[in-house]
Amino acid sequence: MIWWTSTRSKVRGPGENPAACIFFDLSCQNYDINELSDISHTHKKEKDLLYENCMLQEEIALLRLEIDTITNQNQQKEKKYFEDIEVVKENNDNLQKIIKLNEETLTKTIVQYSGQLNDLAAENKILNSELENEKQNQERLEIEMESYHCRLAAALRDCDQSQTQRDLNLHFQRIRQEWIDLQDKMKADMSDHLQATNEILSEKLSNVENKINSLQIQLHNTTDAVEEKNLTLEGVRRDLSQTQCQKKEIEQMYQTEQSKLKKSIAKQESVEERLFQLQNENTLLRQQLDDAHKKVNRQEKTISTLHDQFQAVARNLRAESEKQSLPLQEKSKELLDKCNYFKKSMDQCEKEKPGRKVVMRHLKLEWTDPLKQQPTAEATSFNLDKTQDSKKKSGQISSEVCMKPNMSTVNL
Length: 412
What we know:
It is a single chain. By secondary structure, the chain is mainly alpha-helical. It has a domain at 92-277. The protein is 92% helix and 0% strand. It is built from three helices and no strands. It has helices at residues 28-162, 165-365, 370-411. Helix 1 runs antiparallel to helix 2 and helix 2 (165-365) packs antiparallel against helix 3 (370-411). The longest helix is centred in the middle third of the chain and has 201 residues, at 165-365. The chain is rod-shaped and about 260 Å long. The relative contact order is 0.08. Pfam families: CCDC144C.
């Protein structure tokens, strides 16, 4: 829609020419076109800002969704890692308790068996000392028997020297009987003592052997149990080392996830800063958009005001042109009548032109006689002057008639 504005207009009295009274300065059209281009540019900028705002809102929504997703994933992973760490800690505590109990049991068993071995070793030492004492007693008895043999031999020698054969025999028999009795007594004593001692020692030795065998069996069983417990302990230690490795891996993964979480938090903070900047830009764009709307509204109000002014001026001009068109139409009718009259006169003159040519030829032929030709020449010159005057008048009238419709067109 094109709006026409007038920067200057000149209105004069009703007696003056309307074409010279009102002037429309069409240079204001450039101003209107510039205003329209500014408006279109403002609308285009507004659309661009709205589109950019929508894109920024979508980007903000996507970033918020991504931040929420990353936060949920990190929370789930952190929860899982804490649960795994708690399970590993419980397993580690249980394994430590089992290892401690096994070590205490093994220590108690070793102490018990060590005490029993020490007791058996002490008993063995006692039995060995008793056996040594018995050997010493046996050696002492043998020494006494040898001394008795020596005494017997000395007695025999004394008997041979001092007494008779009979005394010697009696003495010998007596000594022999004493010796036999002593030997029997010694044998009896030795046999009883040795038998008792042997029985005691045999019993003690059998008991010691039984204890040693039982202790060896227990030691073998304990060794097997200790080996099994050592194997179990090695397995537990391997499990513990694996658990510790898993714990370290989990801690490393936790640290990695913590670093990722820190990075995501930093990214979230940067995104929030970007979001804050975008919100500020969005606010500024909204303010610019509101300013543009206000400017467009002001321009539309100005244009509507100018349009109303133009309509009022156009109505005034139309009313004045209608007022001035009535006398012009009457005058144009008169001029048209005169024009028709002069056209008819011109047609008649054209029709009379061949006759005038004939008259001119006759005049040329009769030019030699001035007396005869004077009245004819005066008449001809009069006709020529009249014809020229009529042509001039008809030309003026036709020009006036042509100018009047043009002026009326300009007024309209």
